[in-house]
């Protein structure tokens, strides 16, 4: 299945594992279907990203809503007769609204990954063999979903 993924999809999948799982670069390479040297090269790019991925979708939605509210308050504070957005403010509003719509829609690969990781962490304590088996299914499912990601 790994050979069916494009290079950028393999890299994205490897990045998710690197940032979220406590596994070796060799394990990542084996699961993604690339060399350990390749994963090591990619990992150098990802070192600063671990904290960014800790932000949940709900936190991103809340942050975007706060930004949109601040923009609306700024527009409302203008003097009477000028309480409309400038071209730049209208553009920002459109982009924030589009971001909200995207965040509120289907689960992203990251969301699917986070849920699967949580379940596998729990299951490992209950039944290690079943967790390993289910991990293979999650890997296949995530690979399948990534085929449709641009």
From TrEMBL:
Organism listed in the record: Phocaeicola massiliensis B84634 = Timone 84634 = DSM 17679 = JCM 13223
Residue ranges constituting the HTH cro/C1-type domain according to the UniProt record: 20-42
Pfam families with a match to the protein in the record: HTH_23
The organism's place on the tree of life at top rank: Bacteria
Protein's UniProt name: HTH cro/C1-type domain-containing protein
